[in-house]
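Mods, move this if it's the wrong board.
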Amino acid sequence: MPFVYIVRCNFTAPDKEAAWDVWYSGPKLAQMLALPHFLSCQRFRRASGTGRDYLALWTMQSPDALTSDEYKAQWGFSEWTPLIADWSRDLFDARDWDEGAFAVAAGGALHVAAFDGMSVDEALAARAVMAVSAETMWLPVIGLDRHTPLIGLRATPDVAQADDAPAGEPPARAQQAVYRPISDFHRASGTGTR
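Not the wrong board. C-alpha cells:
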C-alpha cells in the first residue's frame, strides 16, 4: 500500500544526457533507495505522446520519506540542476495498489495521463473523454508541487502492448504519453531488485 512520488522533467543538454542518465540511474537512485521509507524506483523516457521527456516513479511507505532529514540533506539534481527544465515533483496516494503494480519490464511501457494546471473538476471532465484503458490506475495528488490533480498510470508488460500509442488527441491541456523504461525496477535494500 504505497505512496507514489513522481518526478517529471526535461533535460536541456543533449551532449550531456548520457552522463546524466548514468548518474541518475546509478548513484542517485541508490542514494534515494537507502533513505527511510523509500521502497522502489524506475526511470522512464517518453517514446510518444505529450508531456515531459523524463519520468522517475518512486514508491514509498509514507509521505514522511520527503520530510526526513536524510532526504532533505541530498534533495535535488546536484550539479545537473542548471540543465533541468520543466521540473515537477508530485506525491500521489496509491494505497489501493501494491508497489509491484508500477514495475515495467524492459520490453514494456508506462502509459501516463496527466492534467497539469487543471482543477480537479477540469481533470475529471478531461479524463471522461480520453481514450484510456479500464486498467489505468488513477491516483489523486496529495502533496508537493501539485502540478496535476490526478495522474493515470498503466504498466504494460510486452512490446505489442507497449507500442500502442495514445489514441487521438487528448483534450486541451491534458497530456497523454507512452514512456519506455530506461532503468530496471529497483527495490530498496533487502527487498530485492527486478
